[in-house]
Amino acid sequence: MRVRKGAAVQLVVLALIAGALTTGVAVIPHWLPPSAAEQADRIHAVIWYVTIICVAIFAIVVAALAYSIIHFRVAPDDDSDGPPVHGHTGLEALWTAVPFLLVTSMAVFSAIVLARNDRTGSNALHVDVTAQQFAWSFKYPDSNNVASNVLRLPVGRTVRFNLRSLDVLHSFWVPEFSQKQDTVPGLVTHVTITPTKTGVYPIICTELCGLGHPVMRSTVIVMKAAQFDKWLKAQAQATGGGGANAGKAVFANNGCNACHTLQAAGATGKIGPDLDKLPGLAEKAGQPLEQFVRESIVNPDAYIETGFPKGVMPHTFASLPKDQLDALVKYLIDSSKGAK
Ligand code: CUA
């Protein structure tokens, strides 16, 4: 196949125009969330590798197409058949071999990234994730099972998540971490993340799991390592001792203040019942105070106070470790009795 010099120049110009336009579409809208994890960096590298190949091939195809439309268009009144064209063995071999090599390279690159992203090492921090319609909760099994409904992580350390679901399929996703993992009832699934930037990022459920699916969100706070260690140690001490501070720490870690009022904790939430009034509420429900408080945490829909909707309080607190649940119940009873 001989290509005249003028034709070659035109093809190259057309390819450059098509390539520039497509590159603009690929780069300008910021399709990807900013990366805040090593695993996300690797996934983004695969995406860009594939994108660059796609842009190049698209530009070549568009250039050939545009050139043919411009130069080989038949006259409007020409009804004759086109000339018979035989295959070109060399060209056919080329356009089979090149895509084969490119697709194979994508597969190999992806396999390497998948394997690397699953590598956890021996110094990983373990975090248990519990998903339930429609809330997330987190526990630190190596630190007294400290429980929290906001996820805190240290920057620069690999974290191994063990994910469980108490009801249906959910999916754990932090866009800035890229890795995504389903939670499956009856199974423990895993995902590994190494945060690279401090900051606050959303945790999103990405598996349609029921009416509350769009609001099944939480927050991850990536902290400096020393700050995180200090926080975790303080929580482990507070919740582990079973002392007066244990219940208060459990209350704070699980975000009870977001919805409830409790003077002793400085909480002023108005979404759920006022916890300073627990003795009165228990009487109204006709239950002993301790039983009432415990059941309201573990199975919040068992008794609904008038004026408050059912199904708003998450059921995830049923998975609180027993010592933390005991401490919380004791704290709520003591605080509400002391409130005036
Ligand atoms: Cu849980 Cu969607």
The major β-sheet equals: 5 strands, mixed
- Helical percentage: 40-55%
Strand content: 15-25%
Total number of helices: 8
Residue-averaged pLDDT, rounded?
A: 89
| Estimated radius of gyration | 30 Å
Runs in which pLDDT lies below 50 for 5 or more consecutive residues are none
- Structural class by SSE content: alpha+beta
Question: Could you tell me which ligands this complex binds, including any ions or cofactors?
Answer: dinuclear copper ion
Strand order of the largest sheet: 3-2-1-5-8
Order of secondary-structure elements: HHHEEEEEEEEEEHHEEHHH
**Counted beta strands:** 12
Shape: elongated
The span between the termini is: 94 Å
Label this structure with key terms.
340 residues; alpha+beta; 5-stranded mixed sheet; 12 strands; elongated; binds dinuclear copper ion
Short summary:
This protein is an alpha+beta fold. The protein contains eight helices and twelve strands. Strand 2 and strand 3 form a beta hairpin.
What does this entry look like structurally?
This protein is of the alpha+beta class. Helices cover about 45% and strands about 15% of the residues. It has eight helices and twelve strands. It has helices spanning about 5-25, 40-70, 90-115, 225-240, 245-255, 280-285, 290-300, 320-340; strands at about 125-130, 135-140, 145-150, 150-155, 160-165, 170-175, 180-185, 190-195, 200-205, 215-225, 260, 265-270. A hairpin with a 2-residue loop joins strand 1 and strand 2 (about 135-140). The protein is elongated and about 95 Å long. Dinuclear copper ion (CUA) binds next to loops.
